[in-house]
Write a structure and sequence with these properties.
Strand order of the largest sheet of chain B: 3-2-4-7-1-8-11-10-9
Strand content of chain A: 15-25%
GO molecular function (chain B): acetyl-CoA C-acetyltransferase activity
Number of domains of chain A: 2
Order of helices and strands of chain A: EHEHHEHEHHHEEEHEHEHEHHEE
CATH architecture of the largest domain in chain A: 3-Layer(aba) Sandwich
Keywords (chain B): Acyltransferase, Transferase
InterPro entries (chain B): Thiolase, Thiolase-like, Thiolase_C_2
CATH architecture of the domain at 7-122 and 209-226 in chain B: 3-Layer(aba) Sandwich
Order of helices and strands of chain B: EHEHEHEHHHHEEEHEHHEHHHHEE
Radius of gyration of chain B: 19 Å
Shape of chain B: globular
Oligomer: heterodimer
CATH topology of the domain at 7-122 and 209-226 in chain B: Peroxisomal Thiolase, Chain A, domain 1
Number of helices of chain B: 14
Protein name (chain B): Acetyl-CoA C-acetyltransferase
Helix content of chain A: 25-40%
CATH superfamily of the largest domain in chain A: Thiolase/Chalcone synthase
Structural class of chain A: alpha/beta
Helix content of chain B: 25-40%
Organism (chain B): Streptomyces netropsis
Largest sheet of chain B: 9 strands, mixed
């Protein structure tokens, strides 16, 4: 557990509508309303922000330096203190949290966006793999998740019926319930995963505002305090990992203080139903914990923003008094290779 | 709230070459990391977290390569953070790593940046496809040449200044065993008569395309006390960004660069950079950027930068040596180039720069920039620890 010298909270969260395609919109056009929305919640403008950090991927956009134009959506003039991570925005939030801890910033704007529709995301994500031994075989994320699901079923940790229940619960909870009604079982995409077990493909953006101590209290009457946040990575070699477990999630959770007291809510970044099973086990989440009230990645999956949305959704629940202590999780890499866990709390009133 | 002082106790870089066919991407980063650990007399288990940076993933054709590199970087079971801020990324990555120590989140952090440009063609990798950009804008040189021309017009600098910079940096590189280009037969005349690539930038005034990596071990006060060699202490670090294109943008001397330098000098208590700073490693991918940045960073008044270069002030034995390592003009693995600047500045104040050591360097500036001259990262390191 990191003993932070400053208290840092999420004070605002906003996200776009999540659409299958956004051909008619540039990334700036997707992003700008979301940034204004998040800043508007706390009455700030980009100029009031001390540090800005974003997460995105050139591979989704299909062009180098895709984040540089997105900066136009922030309005970086006069020049701003700004950084970017080439991964999910949850890690941008982590970088911003560190920046606030140094004392160099009191407020931070964190955003992330992903346009999976620009290419075939299943093919694109194969480029994430070891370029010498794995990528030439083009195993896509569904195929790899299917290996993981098969390992879980073989180990007696779950069965297809239980996976169907995970799918139904997440899709029913989704913010756009009508658009994401529980899908019929459908054929196997890659056995044992059916369409309902896989995330929707779509485009979207999200933004979060962080603030320290008294600034956070001034901006929100119930800030979502980051009590702990940590992230850990595992080996890239799937063959040497136990895919039915997630030791990196457990370690990050331990370091973030997740096991110090029970949480009432967990927002898990589990793009596949089977991965929710793995994460529940690693995080020792009991039946009393409300898991993915937002619908999670199975309801909306704008790659590179999905993890940041988990942090935002957990914080929003604290903001509106629906949670007192929530866990938020984000993942990156194949089959949950890298995991981030944050513990958020509202103050007792 | 107090900030933990940050010390650079380990520095490693690879041998740089147009194509390092002898190593995989993992082998390349490992070579730099291993040397940084050796310099700090540490092992992988002493490292609490890894912060890695590189420029576009397209250069190697590997999306988020940090996932594949987790094993090679000894990061399994640790936090691994990937930074990408265009050409400034090597500097930004080091600053993100430094923040982890400053904030006391971690005590000892390995930071590394790399590019293996031989895996693709960097010039076309940087040229955005239609419709994002007009079709004739090939590579970074095509983008920056008009801004160099604008600088020449604005200041009345004579045509030959760029060649002087290239001639100096390529000679400095002869004293740096890690540099990519070792042009033993270089003459000023050869630079001047090299082919014109992007008017007014000649072939010999242009950075090469390199495979390479750079790594540093950053640690806290206690870690510095255990280090076998003198550390470099961080006295100031900053990043600034501005949009790529907008009405009123000054491409010759971007405000983000000025603001970033001013922030670093304020943190470090520098009031007269020209007198107080002993060595500068600045990001000069095209020769003319030396005089341009001399002005942008406050070493010369506006319009006066080229006069310092012309008078030999920036030579290795000059009053203000710039790029004693040979700089980006001699070695350019893009994602690592910024970290090489930061690391070379640290080597100078540690007195460990070897043949290209600036005599009695106590304070040095590392500088990086990227995108359309819009992303800046800088740090000031010194031989003495900060007093506050």
């Amino acid at each position: 557990m990191t003993h932070a010298a400053r208290n840092v909270a999420i004070v605002a969260f906003a996200q776009s509508a999540h659409r299958r395609r956004t051909d008619g919109l540039s990334e700036v056009e997707t992003l700008m309303p979301v940034l204004h929305d998040a800043l508007g919640h706390v009455g700030l403008t980009a100029r009031d922000i001390d540090f800005t950090c974003s997460g995105s991927s050139d591979y989704l956009a299909g062009r180098a330096f895709s984040f540089t134009m997105a900066l136009d959506g922030v309005g970086a003039w006069p020049p701003i203190t700004e950084s970017h991570v080439e991964t999910d925005g949850a890690w941008a939030l982590y970088e911003a949290w560190v920046k606030i801890l140094t004392g160099a910033a009191d407020t931070a704007l964190v955003y992330a966006y992903g346009t999976s529709s620009a290419g075939d995301v299943r093919d694109v994500l194969t480029r994430q793999l070891d370029p010498y031994y794995l990528a030439p075989l083009w195993p896509d994320p569904v195929a790899l998740a299917a290996l993981q699901a098969r390992a879980l079923i073989d180990a007696g940790e779950t069965d297809e019926q239980a996976l169907a229940a995970v799918a139904a619960r997440n899709r029913a909870a989704g913010p756009q319930g009508a658009a994401h009604r529980p899908r019929a079982a459908g054929d196997y995409v890659v056995a044992p995963l059916r369409a309902r077990d896989c995330p929707p493909i779509g485009d979207g953006a999200a933004a979060v505002v962080l603030a320290a101590g008294d600034t956070a209290r001034r901006l929100h009457d119930r800030p979502a305090w980051i009590r702990g946040i940590d992230h850990r990575v595992e080996t890239h070699a799937l063959g040497v990992r136990d895919l039915t477990d997630s030791p990196s999630t457990r370690l990050a959770a331990t370091r973030a203080g997740a096991f110090d007291a029970p949480v009432d809510t967990a927002e898990l970044h589990a793009p596949f139903t089977s991965q929710e099973i793995v994460l529940r086990k690693a995080l020792r989440l009991g039946d009393g914990v409300t898991v993915n009230p937002s619908g999670g990645a199975l309801a909306a999956n704008p790659v590179m923003a999905t993890g940041l949305i988990r942090l935002g959704e957990a914080a929003a629940r604290i903001h509106r008094g629906a949670s007192d202590r929530a866990l938020a999780h984000a993942t990156a890499g194949p089959c949950l290779q890298q995991n981030l866990v944050a513990v958020l709390e509202g103050e007792t009133r | 709230m107090t900030r933990e002082p940050v010390a650079v106790v380990g520095i490693g870089q690879t041998r740089h070459a147009a194509a390092r066919r002898d190593v995989s991407i993992a082998g390349l980063v490992r070579e730099a990391a291993r040397r940084a650990l050796d310099d700090a007399a540490l092992t992988w288990s002493d490292i609490d977290a890894v912060v890695i940076g590189k420029a576009p993933d397209f250069f190697e054709g590997v999306m988020t390569p940090e996932h594949y590199l987790a094993d090679a970087l000894g990061a399994v079971g640790k936090p691994l953070l990937r930074v990408h801020t265009a050409g400034s990324v090597g500097g930004s990555t080091a600053l993100v790593a430094a923040d982890l120590v400053t904030a006391r989140v971690h005590r000892t952090v390995l930071t590394l940046a790399f590019e293996k440009q031989s895996e693709s063609n960097a010039m076309w990798g940087l040229s955005l496809p239609v419709p994002f950009q007009q079709p004739l804008l090939a590579g970074a040189g095509g983008f920056f040449a008009p801004h160099v021309r604008a600088y020449m017009r604005r200041t009345g600098a004579p045509d030959g200044v760029g060649s002087l910079v290239a001639y100096k940096d390529r000679r400095n590189a002869l004293k740096n065993p890690y540099a990519h280009l070792h042009e033993h037969d270089i003459t000023l005349e050869k630079v001047r008569s090299s082919p014109m690539l992007w008017d007014p930038i000649r072939y010999s005034e242009t950075c090469p395309s390199s495979d390479g990596a750079c790594a540093m071990v950053l640690t806290d006060r206690a870690g510095a006390a255990r280090a076998p060699y003198p550390p470099a202490w961080l006295h100031g670090g900053a990043m600034r960004s501005e949009p790529t294109l907008f009405a009123g943008k000054d491409f010759v001397s971007p405000r983000a660069g000025k603001d970033c330098a001013a922030d670093v000098y304020r943190q470090a208590g520098i009031t007269d950079p020209r007198r107080e700073i002993d060595a500068v490693e600045m990001y000069v991918p095209f020769s003319w950027y030396e005089p341009m940045w001399l002005e942008n960073l406050g070493f010369a008044a506006e319009g006066e930068g080229w006069k310092l270069t012309e008078a030999g002030v920036t030579e290795l034995d000059g009053d203000l040596p710039v790029n004693p390592s040979g700089g980006v003009l001699s070695t350019n693995p893009i994602g690592a180039s910024g970290m090489l600047r930061f690391a070379e500045a640290a080597l100078q104040v540690r007195g460990r720069a070897g043949e290209h050591q600036v005599a009695d360097a106590r304070k040095a500036l590392g500088h990086a920039y990227g995108g359309g001259a819009q992303f800046f990262s800088m740090w000031l390191v010194a031989a003495e620890p900060p007093t506050t």
